[in-house]
Amino acid sequence: MLTQSAVEVGKVVEALKEAGLRDQVKVVIGGVAARQEIADKYGCDGYVQSAFDAVGVLGGLLEKSRSGPS
To answer: In the beta sheet, which residues pair with residue 28?
Structure first.
């Protein structure tokens, strides 16, 4: 399950790049089949262990996008 999920995450990020949307879309992965290493490897914007954790991570990404490019 973990290996297949990692491959799919890579495909999604690559498709967003090819479509010219990567800078407009945040990719956050999480749950049983995800790890921080996978998020880093495929250039995801975040990793969360649970839906509860997602609130903080997504809030931070939203705040960062409102303040402009870093």
So the answer is: 46
Cβ 38 vs Cβ 6: under 8 Å: yes
CATH of the domain at 25: 3.40.50.280
At 16-64, the pLDDT tens digits run 999 999 999 999 998 887 899 999 999 999 999 988 888 989 899 888 8
Exposure letters 17-53 (e unless 16+ CB within 10 A, then b): eeeeebeeeebbbbeeebbeebbeebebbbbbeeeee
Q: Which domain holds residue 49?
A: 2-66
Spatial distance between the Cα atoms of 70 and 66, rounded to a whole number of angstroms: 11
pTM, 2 dp: 0.78
